[in-house]
Amino acid sequence: MNPHKWQDLHGSGRDAKIVDYELFQPQQELETAFNTAANATKQFVFYIHGHAQKDSLQINREYWLSANQLQQQLNKIAAEQIIIIDTCYSGSFIDDISGTKRTILTSSDAESVAWNNSKFSETLIPALC
After folding, report:
1. SS3 27
2. Are 56 and 66 in contact (CB under 8 A)?
3. Packing angle between helix 26-37 and helix 67-74, nearest 10 degrees?
């Protein structure tokens, strides 16, 4: 869902050929993306940084993905999963999306806004590299 068409993820100077979706039809495009990810064999990482309400992620201006819908999509993937949600009220997703072989990291609890934790991604991403 990244807006960049060309990405050098490994520092090799070559395009990593990442498939991004424009999200003109978000429900269909998310379905396609998760169906493709269902073939993951080693590990699947889902990282979202954006806006949310309790139990609902804002995917674009008009489309919201509920925690239940996210759970249904994640259940398609048999590989070990790491789910990182950096949004307000991200802790509200834990009960709905918890599952076997699934690690969940959130930037806030179920009752808090994330902008109070604005250093979350700034600290997490360099630590992962």
Report:
1. helix
2. yes
3. 30
Cα separation of 75 and 102, whole Å?
Answer: 10
Strands (E), 1-99: 43-49, 51-53, 56-58, 64-66, 80-86
CB 8 within 8 A of CB 15: yes
Residues of the chain with pLDDT > 70: what percent? 84
pLDDT at 126 over 90: no
Residue among 48, 46, 56, 53 nearest 96 (CA)? 56
Any idea of the CA torsion for 114, 119, 125, 129, to the nearest 10 degrees? -160
